[in-house]
């Protein structure tokens, strides 16, 4: 009887001076407590209370892991972010702005440097710059994330920055709302000032797109040290502009042909 009392944690006046009995009763009491906790857990699970915080935590961790996978972050940085988010991460959805906001300043800097380093590895002209110059560019660049259908550069607006696509896709649309081409990873835009052209296009994100930007005046000052690189960039801008103009002419001619065909059809009727 007194054994059941110890197992269930019920007060009992029985006192023993035997070491063996004291150890045995302590073990019985411990198992009794564990069994009680097990019963409470089962009762809570019936009402859907248990696992709520666990599933919420697991969901948040799953979102964070998806985010890190999409960025291709190295193992060391992943481990630190997971540890940091153990208690801080509260978002329910894939909200990059909230994720970045919760990070410490040091982790934000590391994440920015990692993303910028990936960009520099993709863009050919950056591979021709010295490490010191790359560091200067990183220090003066800003990173922005655009969702699908976000307008990055408006029609007729001459941007003050040149943009480099780290990941994602950007559509170039003319004033007649014709989609002329797509720019993707490592492509740049907003550099029409290199070739003395006003901006006649709208730049719209097709999907989630990360873009690094730097002010054009500062960029031109820094590139004075690399005239050959600047010449190559101007050439690529002119070449792309010529390709876009060609596509635009073809689209316009096709539109005229369609209108002409409709007019002729009405005349025959």
Automatic annotation (TrEMBL):
Keywords: Membrane, Transmembrane, Transmembrane helix. It comes from the Eukaryota. Residues 125-240 form the Cyclic nucleotide-binding domain. CDD domains: CAP_ED (cd00038). GO terms for cellular component: HCN channel complex. The keyword Transmembrane helix applies. The chain crosses the membrane at residues 23-52. GO terms for biological process: regulation of membrane depolarization; sodium ion transmembrane transport. InterPro entries: cNMP-bd_dom, cNMP-bd_dom_sf, K/Na_HCN_channel, RmlC-like_jellyroll. Pfam families: cNMP_binding (PF00027). GO terms for molecular function: voltage-gated potassium channel activity. PANTHER family: CYCLIC NUCLEOTIDE-GATED CATION CHANNEL SUBUNIT A-LIKE PROTEIN, I[[H]] CHANNEL, ISOFORM E. This is Cyclic nucleotide-binding domain-containing protein. It comes from Exocentrus adspersus.
């Amino acid at each position: 009887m007194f054994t059941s009392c110890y197992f269930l944690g019920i007060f009992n006046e029985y006192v023993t001076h035997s070491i063996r009995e004291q150890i045995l009763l302590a073990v019985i009491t411990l198992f009794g407590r564990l069994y009680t906790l097990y019963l409470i857990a089962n009762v809570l699970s019936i009402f859907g209370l248990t696992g709520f915080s666990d599933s919420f935590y697991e969901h948040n961790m799953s979102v964070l892991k998806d985010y890190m996978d999409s960025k291709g972050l190295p193992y060391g940085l992943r481990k630190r972010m997971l540890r940091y988010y153990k208690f801080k991460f509260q978002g329910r959805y894939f909200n990059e702005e909230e994720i970045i906001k919760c990070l410490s300043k040091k982790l934000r800097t590391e994440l920015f440097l990692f993303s910028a380093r990936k960009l520099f590895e993709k863009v050919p002209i950056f591979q021709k710059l010295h490490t010191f110059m790359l560091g200067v560019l990183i220090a003066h660049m800003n990173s922005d994330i655009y969702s699908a259908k976000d307008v990055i550069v408006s029609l007729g607006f001459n941007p003050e920055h040149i943009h480099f696509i780290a990941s994602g896709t950007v559509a170039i649309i003319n004033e007649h709302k014709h989609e002329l081409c797509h720019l993707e990873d490592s492509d740049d835009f907003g550099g029409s000032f290199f070739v003395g052209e006003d901006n006649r296009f709208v730049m719209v994100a097709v999907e989630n797109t990360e873009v690094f930007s730097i002010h054009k005046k500062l960029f031109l000052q820094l590139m004075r040290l690399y005239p050959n690189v600047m010449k190559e960039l101007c050439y690529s801008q002119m070449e792309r502009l010529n390709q876009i103009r060609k596509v635009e002419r073809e689209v316009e001619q096709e539109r005229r042909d369609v209108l002409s065909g409709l007019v002729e059809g009405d005349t025959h009727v």
